[in-house]
Design a protein that fits this description.
Radius of gyration: 49 Å
Number of strands: 0
Structural class: mainly alpha
Distance between the termini: 177 Å
Largest sheet: none
Order of helices and strands: HHHHHHHH
Strand content: under 5%
Shape: rod-shaped
Length: 284
């Protein structure tokens, strides 16, 4: 009986130890696995292997592409009407700057001639002698020669015209011709200043029409498809304004300077009339 009880107690004890060992193994297995996972997660990734010796270097970044929305792109993508408008605006601009430079040089030359007249013309012995001392291209010499010629031509049927009317008529005609010369080119500036904005606007409308037509045919109305062609068309308006503004400013500036120059010319003509009429043509 005692041996049976001892055997039963021994088996229960062994079973208990086996159960405790199994539980302990299960309990310790979970933290161990967690630690492994954490260690794997926190372990840094291995660094990339260095480039092999002799390997080709990385390609350089591509250079900036050409602007697809500039004037060059507008010229390449435009038709003959848009190109004709551009050429017309260029001609207007070049013509305006040419006239501005030429007229400034002409006005400066006339001012220099006016100083020469004030310096020595009126101290000459006669109008002919005074005119000979002036430059050949001087407007003042042209007027003086016209007065001398009027006195010499006052004969025959023309002798019936009083000298007080004949000489001033010829001198005034010479003054008018000088004024017409000073006004030459200003009409072109006025035309460019008043029409070039509308020429540019016509190019803009034409370009936008073709751009919208092309967009409608392609069926792509995104902002990148619309902004480029429409922006290129608007360049026409900007060019038109860039041509018109200098032309208008040049016209006003040259007209004001012409007034100053012509005031001196008219004053010279009036004084020449007084000399020739007062001397009855003898001072010629």
């Amino acid at each position: 009986m005692r041996s049976t009880v001892a055997t039963l107690v021994g088996r229960l004890t062994l079973a208990s130890f086996l159960a405790i060992g199994a539980v302990s193994s299960a309990a310790w297995a979970k933290p161990q696995d967690t630690a492994v996972v954490v260690a794997q997660a926190t372990t840094p990734a291995p660094a990339a292997a260095p480039a092999a010796a002799g390997q080709a270097p990385a390609a350089k970044p591509a250079e900036a592409a050409e602007n697809p929305y500039g004037i060059a792109a507008l010229w390449r993508g435009s038709d003959f009407v848009a190109r004709f408008v551009l050429l017309m605006l260029v001609i207007m601009s070049v013509g305006s700057w040419y006239i501005l430079v030429v007229k400034l040089l002409e006005q400066r030359r006339m001012q220099r001639h006016a100083q020469a007249v004030a310096g020595g013309f009126w101290s000459a012995s006669s109008v002919s002698a005074g005119a000979a001392a002036l430059d050949e291209g001087s407007a003042y010499r042209f007027i003086a020669d016209a007065g001398v010629s009027a006195v010499k031509q006052h004969q025959g049927l023309k002798a019936h015209i009083p000298v007080a009317e004949w000489v001033p008529m010829n001198v005034q005609a010479a003054v008018d011709r000088v004024q017409a010369t000073t006004q030459r080119g200003l009409a072109f500036l006025a035309t460019v200043g008043s029409t070039s904005p509308f020429v540019g606007l016509f190019g803009t409308v034409w370009g936008i029409y073709h751009a919208l037509t092309a967009i409608g045919i392609s069926g792509q109305a995104s902002i990148d498809k619309v902004a480029g062609p429409v922006g290129e068309a608007l360049i026409m308006t900007a060019i038109g304004l860039a041509v018109a503004i200098p032309a208008v400013l040049s016209y006003n500036w040259l007209a004001r300077r012409n007034k100053i120059v012509m005031d001196n010319v008219r004053e010279f003509g009036d004084e020449l009339n007084a000399v020739l009429v007062g001397s009855a043509g003898k001072a010629a």
